[in-house]
Amino acid sequence: MSEFLQHLINMLVLGGTYALLGIGLTLIFGIMNVVNFTHGVLYTFGAYIMFIVVQQLGLNFFLALPVAVLAGWLLGAAIELTLLRPLRGSDIDTTMLVMIGAWIAMQSGALWIWGGVAKSVTTPFPEAPLVLGPVSVSWLRLFVLAAAALLILVTYLLINKTSLGRAMRATFQDHDTASLMGVNVDMIYTSTFAIGSSLAAAAGALLGPVYVIFPQMGDLAAVKAFAIVILGGLGNITGAVIGGFILALAEELGAGYVSSGYRDAMGFLIIIAVLIFRPTGLFARAERVG
Amino acid sequence: MTRALGLVPAVALAAALVGGAAQAQTIKIGVNEPLTGAFAASGTYVVNGAKIAADEINAKGGILGKKIELVIEDNKSNPTEAAAVAEKLITSDKVPVLMGAWGSSLTLAVMPKLMEYETPMVVETSSSGKITTTGNPFIFRISPPSAIEAAAFKGIVDKLALKKVDFLVINNDWGRGTAEDFSKMMKEKGISIGLVETMDQGAQDMSAQLSKIKSSDSETVIVTTAVDQLTLIFKQAAALGLKKRIITTGGSQNPDQIIAQAGAAANGTMHLTTFLPWFPDKTPNPEATNYFITEWKKRGFEFAGCTESFRGYDGIRTAAAAIEKAGKAEPAAIKAALWNINIKGLNGDIVFRKSGPEGKESGQSQPNVYLIEINDGKVAMKTL
């Protein structure tokens, strides 16, 4: 029983960051319809920003987080302005190829700047974990969970309760009509991509100190983000959040009770099942197609 | 612009010709190591150790009147890349001998290429038994296979009063081979084997496996993986409140890094290593060990890397000694000469004995294995 409780705690902590990765990508992949291969690199980028601010500049850990989010926002906006804006209206394959190129270039850039050896970030949290009866969890991971929950809430409110969010939803439903209604469509594209990117960077900034930071760290994260988006249904924020927790649960229980060798395969088994039985995702609403 | 671009191939060709002429003055040794990916830290240490050996040999005039030149390639911790890199080093750089490829799965992927191009390779780190038992006569290994490690550990298991052990190993030839060889030895000693958990080489979160181990009824966990993953395991085990005794194997632990990263959680842990940089006077070759450690520190590298980098140093010295003995930098001659060398390595004499099926034996030297324990953030030696 105590083992099961421990797995559940691990799942909560892991699921929070998976959800963060998932909602960032569902904005870009699900709503903007851009197959964003740079999502993993932005995750890596956020982690390296933490490394620079905390280890190299010696500044405060909590200050580094908003810096990483802002840097992710700026890099996302830059990618949208330089690579995606000129390609607006071209087919999905062209955009995908350009994004693959950007992914390779940025990952090699990180390798060139920081080298292949993993870096770690020191945190202000105590080493001794919080012990609650039979289970224990590190303070750092609790903080990560709380920060992830806060960011998810902010994103949810931004999309559903603000005029920017309304303009975003309108633009991606029908961008000609939105444009006729006075929405600055170009600005909406850029800000959506920038917000999605800043969420990826935030996930990297939160998880970098938990694990170690290296140029390829984003690859597995990106694959998991795609899994979560497919699981939750394209463009569905609530779906991405729940999808993140389901993936974490499958990994924890899969490793705990089936076989740890297949831990990272669990996510893909779920995707296969979802694509066979509910191809629009677990939480897709009924929708008119014609 | 078009005209300027047209010049590029011509310039490149000229540069290649000039470069080619210069390269004939050196003897090349191919180095196939993981400089990126899951084993980047370890591979980089090995390469830095290799450079110390090359510089030392060149400072003394080189071999056969020529300087040695290391051609270093990154195998990205990926077996497919490791095989491609070996092919590139042999066919394009024309190296007569290689050193590599750090991990067992990486080395195993390179081995068919060695057969294909009949080029010998000094194996400096890999510990899977399969490497020297499958009949590849181009393999010369200076690192201990996990069976030798297990045999060395056998002497101390009674003193440690082991009753039941769990394993947490990297999910590749190295980890699974270690779990197999150690389980066999322990069963002979009447120790029961509990869980055998694995982790992907790139995995960063081992909380699920550690939670499972935490709830088992064993008192000891044997952990096998490289330093990056080990530090994560120590941190995550501490966060989960895992109180079992941890013993690591494989010699790629960099104990000082564990002390730095895991803090108090490192106390009481034990590690099977293949080098004793903390006690140079207790090594088989104190003079060389002291030289190596001084040189390592002089270059500004972290002391923690010594337990890994010495492999690169010994590996290059082994290859260089064989070239010298062969009298020419040709693969067949070097392969024959490797059987006749006897050099003082940092971890014992490097003399190759035959291992594997008759007629196509691989070479295996008999390095020392040590057990160290971390107490109050300091490394102490345990007698085996």
Q: Would you mind describing this structure in some detail?
A:
- The complex is a heterodimer of chains A (290) and B (384).
- With 290 residues, chain A is an all-alpha fold.
- Helices cover 72% and strands 2% of the residues of chain A.
- Chain A has 11 helices and 2 strands.
- In chain A, a hairpin with a 2-residue loop joins strand 1 (130-132) and strand 2 (135-137).
- Chain A is globular and about 60 Å long.
- Chain B has 384 residues and is an alpha/beta fold.
- Chain B is built from 14 helices and 16 strands.
- Chain B has helices at residues 2-23, 40-59, 79-91, 104-117, 130-133, 146-154, 157-160, 173-188, 207-214, 227-240, 255-262, 286-298, 306-326, 331-338, and strands at 26-33, 67-74, 98-100, 121-123, 139-141, 164-170, 192-199, 220-224, 245-249, 270-273, 343-345, 348-350, 353-355, 362-364, 370-375, 378-382.
- In chain B, strand 1, helix 2 and strand 2 (67-74) form a beta-alpha-beta unit.
- In chain B, helix 2 packs across helix 13, helix 3 runs parallel beside helix 4 (104-117) and helix 10 (227-240) runs parallel beside helix 11 (255-262).
- The longest helix of chain B is centred in the N-terminal third of the chain and has 22 residues, at 2-23.
- The termini of chain B are far apart.
- The model of chain B is unreliable at 1-6 and 16-23 (pLDDT under 50).
- The chains are: A mainly alpha (290), B alpha/beta (384).
- The interface between A and B is large, with 38 and 35 residues.
Q: Rounded to an integer, what's the Rg of chain B over CA atoms?
A: 21 Å
Structural class of chain B: alpha/beta
Q: What's the total count of β strands of chain B?
A: 16
* Assigned CATH architecture of chain A: Orthogonal Bundle
Strand content of chain B: 15-25%
Instruction: Figure out the total of helices of chain B.
Output: 14
Provide key terms for this protein.
heterodimer; A: 290 residues; mainly alpha; ABC transporter involved in vitamin B12 uptake, BtuC; two-stranded antiparallel ribbon; 11 helices; globular; B: 384 residues; alpha/beta; seven-stranded mixed sheet
